[in-house]
Amino acid sequence: MKDNWIAPSILSADFARLGEEVQQALKSGADVVHFDVMDNHYVPNLTIGPLVCEALRKHGVTAPIDVHLMIKPVDRIIPDFAKAGASYITFHPEASDHVDRSLQLIRDNGCKSGLVFNPGTPLNYLDYAMDKIDMILLMSVNPGFGGQSFIPYVIDKIHEVRQRIDASGRDIRLEIDGGVKVDNIREIAAAGCDTFVAGSAVFGAGKDSDPNRYDSIIKALRDELAKARA
Ligand code: DX5
Ligand code: ZN
């Protein structure tokens, strides 16, 4: 079983002081930086690109950066994110005309690759992809915005993907994204996830003036994860 990773989504951070926000979350015990890229085309919102990823690296962020592409098409921008310091790059299979090529492009550029499944997207995209991916990201909300509620039927999908990963015998992380909170992370972990995106739960916690403002939320999430393993 893999170590559990907590991946705060910077979508809910204060963009005016993003570097400090990310460093605070990491200092409080976060494992990974979840970096949401939206294009106002594949999803109805617009966020950040490779320049901001590079800026975080220049600010001294050394933790893995998990780039979640909610853009269409995907290939043109993949090398830019690799150069900007991305560790993982994941994309939605509906957003690429050539899924195999896009996955290969991510690895050729030295990053770990992954596919993202919307709540309503079938898992058959995995049938011929298990040897080309390092991460499977299940959306538990429809992508585009932070602060939405976890869609309960995705729990069944987590079980299904967990079985596929175990049957493959491959080293693939299973990540969940959307509506993850202290009160549901235990059930999500028990279903088989090992990587947990949390946007509003983390960056909505604590007082801005408190340099340790994310300590208690990240500890609370970890305590729940420990119970899931107990
Ligand atoms: C939604 C993004 C998420 C988002 C999650 O499209 O992919 O990463 O930030 O936010 P919360 O944790 O608030 O649901
Ligand atoms: Zn995301």
Automatic annotation (TrEMBL):
<dbReference type="GO" id="GO:0004750">
    <property type="term" value="F:D-ribulose-phosphate 3-epimerase activity"/>
</dbReference>
<comment type="pathway">
    <text>Carbohydrate degradation.</text>
</comment>
<keyword id="KW-0413">Isomerase</keyword>
<dbReference type="GO" id="GO:0006098">
    <property type="term" value="P:pentose-phosphate shunt"/>
</dbReference>
<dbReference type="InterPro" id="IPR026019">
    <property type="entry name" value="Ribul_P_3_epim"/>
</dbReference>
<dbReference type="InterPro" id="IPR013785">
    <property type="entry name" value="Aldolase_TIM"/>
</dbReference>
<dbReference type="Pfam" id="PF00834">
    <property type="entry name" value="Ribul_P_3_epim"/>
</dbReference>
<dbReference type="GO" id="GO:0019323">
    <property type="term" value="P:pentose catabolic process"/>
</dbReference>
<keyword id="KW-0479">Metal-binding</keyword>
<feature type="binding site">
    <location>
        <position position="34"/>
    </location>
    <ligand>
        <name>a divalent metal cation</name>
    </ligand>
</feature>
<feature type="binding site">
    <location>
        <begin position="177"/>
        <end position="179"/>
    </location>
    <ligand>
        <name>substrate</name>
    </ligand>
</feature>
<comment type="function">
    <text>Catalyzes the reversible epimerization of D-ribulose 5-phosphate to D-xylulose 5-phosphate.</text>
</comment>
<keyword id="KW-0464">Manganese</keyword>
<dbReference type="InterPro" id="IPR011060">
    <property type="entry name" value="RibuloseP-bd_barrel"/>
</dbReference>
<protein>
    <recommendedName>
        <fullName>Ribulose-phosphate 3-epimerase</fullName>
        <ecNumber>5.1.3.1</ecNumber>
    </recommendedName>
</protein>
<feature type="active site" description="Proton donor">
    <location>
        <position position="177"/>
    </location>
</feature>
<feature type="binding site">
    <location>
        <position position="68"/>
    </location>
    <ligand>
        <name>a divalent metal cation</name>
    </ligand>
</feature>
<keyword id="KW-0119">Carbohydrate metabolism</keyword>
<feature type="binding site">
    <location>
        <position position="68"/>
    </location>
    <ligand>
        <name>substrate</name>
    </ligand>
</feature>
<dbReference type="GO" id="GO:0005737">
    <property type="term" value="C:cytoplasm"/>
</dbReference>
<feature type="binding site">
    <location>
        <position position="177"/>
    </location>
    <ligand>
        <name>a divalent metal cation</name>
    </ligand>
</feature>
<feature type="binding site">
    <location>
        <position position="9"/>
    </location>
    <ligand>
        <name>substrate</name>
    </ligand>
</feature>
<keyword id="KW-0170">Cobalt</keyword>
<feature type="binding site">
    <location>
        <begin position="144"/>
        <end position="147"/>
    </location>
    <ligand>
        <name>substrate</name>
    </ligand>
</feature>
<dbReference type="InterPro" id="IPR000056">
    <property type="entry name" value="Ribul_P_3_epim-like"/>
</dbReference>
<feature type="binding site">
    <location>
        <position position="36"/>
    </location>
    <ligand>
        <name>a divalent metal cation</name>
    </ligand>
</feature>
<comment type="similarity">
    <text>Belongs to the ribulose-phosphate 3-epimerase family.</text>
</comment>
<feature type="binding site">
    <location>
        <begin position="199"/>
        <end position="200"/>
    </location>
    <ligand>
        <name>substrate</name>
    </ligand>
</feature>
<dbReference type="GO" id="GO:0046872">
    <property type="term" value="F:metal ion binding"/>
</dbReference>
<keyword id="KW-0862">Zinc</keyword>
<feature type="binding site">
    <location>
        <position position="179"/>
    </location>
    <ligand>
        <name>substrate</name>
    </ligand>
</feature>
<feature type="active site" description="Proton acceptor">
    <location>
        <position position="36"/>
    </location>
</feature>
